[in-house]
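Sorry, can you check?
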Amino acid sequence: MKHLREELWFNVPQRRGYINITEQVQQLVRKSGVQNGLVLVNAMHITASIYINDAEEGLIQDYDDWLERLAPHEPTSQYRHNLTGEDNADAHLKRQVMGREVVVAITDGRLDFGPWEQIYYAEFDGRRRKRVLVKIIGE
């Protein structure tokens, strides 16, 4: 069995951002030499997410608007977590809704997606460097 472990690093300058990382993950699949297997992609920070959906700008903005209504950043005093000196309780809640990781099948050396599927890194408390783990296993 072949395997590869790599880290992707991101530094989103705003509090929130959404980055399509599909091509970066596909490049790592090629690098691994795995033709048939699985790839795990997971955010290694509790205020960021990995998810799969359509790469359509309107939908990405819809997600951002919906998440902000669901867990608004302000007023920061509404969250007990922020009493610790943090101001990112909303980011933790947004991450919980959007998820930590995705697993994608690899078939014939390619990510095996349904129509329109893409892998996204979602940042909810940016302005510092964060990492994403990519672990590929297979034959």
